[in-house]
Amino acid sequence: MPIHVLTRLEANAFEWLVPGLLEEKILLLLKGLPKNVRRQAAPLSETAREIFSRLIHGKGDFYTALSQAALDVCGLHVPVASWPREGLPVHLKMRFEIVDEEGTVLHTGRDLRELQQKAVGIHRDAAWEKARRRWERSGFTSWDFGPLPEKIELGRDAYGVMRYAYLGLQAEGAAVSVRLFADAPSAREATRDGLLVLYQWAFAPILKGLRKEWTLSPSRRAGGGPSDALPMGAVHFLGDLREAEKQAQIYMLRELFDLHDPQPPDEEKYRRTIRELPPHLGARARQLWAELKAVLDARYEMSLALEKYRRKSAANPGALERLQAVEEELVRLVPPDFLTKYRSAVMRELPRYLRGLARRAERAYVAPEKDRQKWSEVATFVARYAKARENLSREAPKAALDFLDEMRWMLEEYKLSLFAPEVKTRLPISAQRLEKKWAEYEALIGQTA
Q1: Residues of the chain below pLDDT 70
Q2: Comparing C-alpha atoms, which of 163, 139, 136 is closest to residue 152?
Q3: DSSP state of 81
Q4: Of 352, 332, 362, 356, which is closest to residue 418 (Cα–Cα)?
Q5: In what order do the strands lie in the sheet with 175-181?
């Protein structure tokens, strides 16, 4: 395997081995499961043969396909991450040889990800160094280095394969450097953070004033009266306040400059933002901060209500059980790291979901059995969603990830319709619509598997 293509490879493609070894691999994976689990697959040799016959070699992620086939063949539910792959014998793991541009073997091994980390980090040849001398520069606080191509050719290796290097902007302290990267994802990830530095320099005078308002500490809040401050307990769930404020500021900057996603170095987009954003920056920043604060306020009110109903239910185990379930929903909805998980479109919806959850807490206190019955209507969909997320491989297509994300928020709307119908849903929602959506997802997975 030429070293320069190493980072472009996906490890899951090599889990399929060659067809002649696959049935043996399936059998040993079944044998490696806990006894109480593998008992459902007995007799194992016949089950392995049947699973093997259902698999289409090389199509999609092997372990995702294996989990689905095991479920279809014998009703065995094994999450993708639970297959005992570490216990496989050596001959059932693909062996890799990593060679340089001349064909000299640099590394060998059977763990592709380990080889990717090891080999690419240390291998630099004459072509790479020549490209570095031409393209890499340091110490920028604005886009003064001209247009950058997303990738450059380094020439062909001994096997005739074209080699590439990828350009990105790397944040280095308070400045930015143009650097070469071995793969496009690394270059795009770095560029997102590099652009963040450049934009902060470009908008420094405006951001200086805005940052004074971006504090989560009520005692340090600039401007505004008491009604504009966050309650003292509103940020306790975030943990360390200093780190939380850092995350809040990064969230604000990424939203303002559209930097949540990794991206290539695009000079045209950068200059368009510099040109068009200033008249709207202050208003947009205040809107984003108001959205964030509304989430914290609503979550705090919800936690106060939950505590009140808990105290009132001290002698009612049934109510306490349902209130515990509501609290678990609260933590899932707005976890301590929600600032790194959500974008503005979700932030705007969270207070509505939290209001619905507060209504549910009140009703669970009054009639816990009704809450349990209503949850039974949504539990199947929640479990199905959780299983789909669990079974999704690291190399899953973006379309599948986006689809599951859409499904997650449809579930929140469905919960509103069941537990707090007076809080209006964003879209028409029902169990039938969820079933239809789930069928679409299964069709999508079938196409991309």
Answers
A1: 4, 7-8, 101-102, 118-124, 158-159, 218-228, 393-396, 446-449
A2: 163
A3: G
A4: 356
A5: 137-140, 175-181, 162-172, 151-156
Please, is 202 exposed, middle or buried when counting C-beta atoms within 10 Å of its C-beta (0-12, 13-18, 19+)? buried
Give the whole-angstrom CA distance, residue 146 versus residue 169.
Answer: 12
Q: Cα–Cα distances in Å, from 265 out to 57, 128, 165, 179, 183? A: 38, 20, 14, 11, 14
Token representation of residue 47:
């089950």
Domain range summary for the chain, segments of one domain joined by +: 18-92, 125-188, 203-345, 367-449
CA distance 395 to 81: 13
Helices 44-54, 62-74: crossing angle, 10 deg rounding: 120
Tokens of 276: 């068009």
Rounded to 5°, angle at Cα 355 from 352 and 359: 140
Q: How many residues does the chain have?
A: 449
3-state secondary structure of 161: coil
34 backbone φψ class: left, alpha, beta (φ>0; ψ -120 to 50): beta
DSSP 182-197: SSHHHHHHHHHHHHHH
Q: How far is CA 318 from the centre of its chain?
A: 36
Give the Cα separation of 445 and 403 in Å (integer).
10
For 241-257, give the DSSP string: HHHHHHHHHHHHHHHHT
**φ/ψ of residue 203, rounded to 5:** -110, 25
Q: Are 94 and 110 in contact (CB under 8 A)?
A: yes
DSSP reduced 3-state for 76: coil
pTM for the complete prediction? 0.73
